[in-house]
Amino acid sequence: MTRSDALTEIFNFMDHKVRVVILKGQDGGRAPWFVAVDVRRCLGVTQSGSNYSLLTENEKCLRGRTSLGLPGGRPIMLVSESGLYKLILKSRKPEAKAFQDWVTQVVLPAIRKDGLYVRGEEKVSAGEMDLEELTLITLTRLQEKMKRLKEEKEAAEALAKFSQGIITEHLDYVTMDE
After folding, report:
1. In what order do the strands lie in the sheet with 60-63?
2. Which pLDDT belongs to residue 4?
3. Closest by Cα among 45, 51, 19, 43 to 32
4. Longest dimension (CA), the chain
5. What distance in Å separates the CA atoms of residue 59 and residue 154, rounded to the nearest whole number?
6. Burial class (CB in 10 A: 0-12, 13-18, 19+), 175
7. Sign of the CA dihedral with 152 first, then 153, 158, and 161 last
8. How far is CA 112 from the centre of its chain?
9. Which of 15, 21, 32, 100 is the most buried (most CB within 10 A)?
10. How many whole angstroms separate alpha carbon 172 and alpha carbon 3?
11. Torsion angle of alpha carbons 40, 41, 42, 44, nearest 10°?
């Protein structure tokens, strides 16, 4: 088991635990994948197969339990972040309504108006947080994002340099007659 394939977090949503796995993607970045049975439980869905037909192949995957640090058994279905949103937004269950409302009434309008959503910004208008605290949180998150983008850029540059070396090496062996 690699560190990137371990169950890393457990979120609680309406008294339901949702296990999250961080997996390495094809682009080299890491992304959260959610244990599908936990998502189903949160949404009040009883049949497993029907909802997954809504998802594309890159929004779902099966993983062996032991690769996730769990005891052996049947593989576990995981759902990508975009797949999770798709399942929630398509759900007609009351359990999904709070999330749907938050996305459509808070997050998307903030993105349309300001070009971004800062987690917790609705607390300022509700009087639960002052503007200075929100500013500090926003700056901290921007610094974290800049650090992540810098690391991604360095990784991409290293890959490009490596790829260029391979191409150059193989081009030395190609002649016009070939």
Report:
1. 7-13, 16-24, 30-35, 76-80, 60-63
2. 44
3. 19
4. 75
5. 27
6. exposed
7. positive
8. 21
9. 21
10. 39
11. 80
Residue 98 C-beta-side C-alpha neighbours within 13 Å: 5
Rounded distance between C-alpha atoms, residue 44 and residue 93, angstroms = 7
Exposure of 50 in the CB half-sphere (CA atoms within 13 A): 6
Sequence spans of domains, the chain: 1-99, 118-178
pTM: 0.58
Query: Any alpha helices (H) in the chain, and if so which ranges?
Result: 36-43, 49-52, 81-90, 94-102, 108-114, 122-125, 131-171
- For the segment 145-155, what is each residue's pLDDT rounded down to a tens digit? 788 888 888 98
Instruction: Provide the pLDDT for residue 74.
Output: 81
Separation CA 167–CA 173 (nearest Å): 10
C-alpha to C-alpha distance for 34 and 85, rounded to whole angstroms: 11
